[in-house]
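Category: protein sequence paired with discrete backbone structure
Discipline: computational structural biology
Format: plain text, a pair of labelled lines
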Amino acid sequence: MKYLNKVLAKKLPKLKLHDSDLGNIGLIKINGKKVTFEEFSKMENIKIRDLNLYGSSVKDLPVGLKLIGHLDLSKSTIEELPEGLQVGGNLWLNDTNIKVLPLDLRVQGKIYISPNMEKTFNPGKFKVRVRV
């Protein structure tokens, strides 16, 4: 019992989270600040480099979100893209419930969807950019 008390009395080191781990616990790092997905979705007109929300539980993206690089929403719970979304690189939508792209969406790269989305996904004017 003495050994157990001695072990329990020791201070444990703080866990260090890498930025890539934040999404697993419902956080995202924006301009050096950690915010919840809910806080993030209420922001407006923010500009960031790349955003990887693969497999996250994010429900909404901010209105007017501008990405210099890529946006990965694969396997996330998001169902629609916000107004004013601009993506400077590729947009990954694999295994999402997104059916329609907003008319004002701007994507410089390709838009990737999974084969199971082909029948329900309407790319609209972005048909030439979509890859399965």
